[in-house]
Amino acid sequence: MKVLVIGGGAREHALCRSLSLDPDVTELHCAPGNAGIAQVARLHPVDQLDGAAVADLAAGLGAGLVVVGPEAPLVAGVADAVRDRGIPVFGPSREAALLEGSKAFAKDVMAAAGVPTARSYVCTTPEEAADALDAFGAPYVVKDDGLAAGKGVVVTSDLQEALAHAAACGRVVIEEFLDGPEVSLFAVTDGTTVVPLQPAQDFKRAHDGDEGPNTGGMGAYSPLPWAGPELVDEVLATVLQPTVDELRRRGTPFSGLLYAGLAITSRGVRVIEFNARFGDPETQVVLARLRTPLAGLLLAAATGRLDELEPLRWSDGAAVTVVVAAEGYPASPRSGDPVEGLAEAEAADGTAYVLHAGTRLGEDGAVLSAGGRVLSVTAVGEDLALARRRAYDAVARIRLAGSHHRTDIALRAAGGQDAGRDGRQDDGAR
Ligand code: AMP
After folding, report:
1. Alpha-carbon torsion 145, 150, 151, 157, what sign?
2. Residues 6 or more apart in contact with residue 266 via CB below 8 angstroms
């Protein structure tokens, strides 16, 4: 099977890496890709938001499967354009991707499906916003209704800051604050059958101790030693399956990757948000542990045959990803610097490897930084402590002027079974 992956971050590098290890994949292509993906796939300089161009590329290559990585092409209808050509595509339609593209739509679907989530109001005027903030009290949670690349949410105890964010966004969702550790649970679905993957946790704040601004994600780990296996069953029954059923009932079936961002509160599991695609950086650790060949899984979802699939196989071990970010990330990342030590960072036995996020090849073939999050350094091991040590050993070998990374990814989870229970995060992001 020839496979085309759309996107160019570390998530797509992780997808391409796993696809390249699937014996059924005979050719692997990626558009636009990055310097790391170029090692495992042929790159094509196609605009990932241009559905017709992506469909032309897929048809020209004779692709048997197209995998759309990021949310922006999904919301732009790229999966529809490919599907209309009769080519199997892993990724929801534009209408179903609204589950991520509009927080208000997601809330409506959850209400109809009886999915537990934060109580909320959709507000379009400063007066409505002020009333809603008053109704819930501090800490305040204000979310831009539209896509904002992970930066549309403000959680603050400062009423003025909350009001200012609401005014700047226009249409916002204001909701109750959810306490408790966060979990990311992905599920592969064909619109009917839902196959959950293993849970992971990410770290959204820029600095150690969950300090600093929100980012796209600074690291992740899986499994979660503090969450029992019943968590996946519960989320499948109360969140994932009802949501997929509701979207099918509405005539806009969701096929692709349904990502539930969850808070494990004292009153039970609550959905913080849905995404319509693999999460970055959790994908890096989840795929590091998946033993079932990836192309077969994604093709089964794309062709409505997930019910025929054997149960997924997983490694018993752990995986940790540490993001190396450019100087100035997230506010104003600097780019164009050489990234060195990449070969030294990789372990010969495959237990540590470097996934590229924002990189490109310079004219002389050198790898240059080209984005805020530059690398996702990923390692596996028998347990979190070993995976963590290997990941940080690899990070220490990488040289990128001015770069920064968190030093506490999976630290508490690696240290004890209850790590996630006694605090808000890592337990994870905040
Ligand atoms: P989102 O873009 O919806 O994932 O929000 C980004 C981050 O804001 C989440 O990962 C949470 O850490 C935080 N957040 C979002 N909604 C809430 C909420 N209702 N209560 C507490 N924290 C939240």
Report:
1. positive
2. 179, 180
Spatial separation of the C-alpha atoms in residues 159 and 103, rounded to whole Å? 21
pLDDT digits (tens, 9 = 90+) for 232-255: 999 999 999 999 999 999 999 999
Contact 15, 294 (CB under 8 A): yes
Span 59-104, pLDDT tens digits: 999 999 999 999 999 999 999 999 999 999 999 999 999 999 898 8
Cα angle value 371/30/405 (rounded, 5°):
30
Quick one: which H or E segment has residue 271?
strand 268-275
> Could you read off the pLDDT of 277-311 as tens digits, one per residue?
999 999 999 999 999 999 999 999 999 999 999 99
Q: φ and ψ at 295, to 5 degrees? A: -60, -40
d(CA 141, CA 133): 8
Q: 3-state SS of 342-360? A: HHHHCCCCCCEEEEECCEE
Spacing, Cα 157 to ligand 1 middle (Å): 14
Alpha-carbon distance of 342 to 321, in angstroms, equals 15
In which element (H, E) is residue 93 found?
none
**In the predicted structure, residue 38 carries a pLDDT above the cut 70:** yes
Nearest of 412, 415, 414 to residue 181 by alpha carbon:
412
Of 272, 277, 424, the residue with max ligand 1 atoms within 8 A of its CB, to mutate for a pocket test, comes to 272
CB of 304 shorter than 6 A to ligand 1:
no
Listed in sequence order, the residues at least 6 apart from 399 whose beta carbon sits closer than 8 Å to its beta carbon are: 339, 340, 341
Q: pTM here?
A: 0.93
Alpha helix (H) ranges present in 305-427? 342-345, 384-396, 411-415
Alpha helices in 199-274 (DSSP H): 230-235, 241-249
CB of 175 within 6 A of ligand 1: the answer is yes
- Name the nearest CA neighbour of 20 among 4, 41, 35: 41
Apex CA 264: angle with CA 258 and CA 266, to 5°? 150
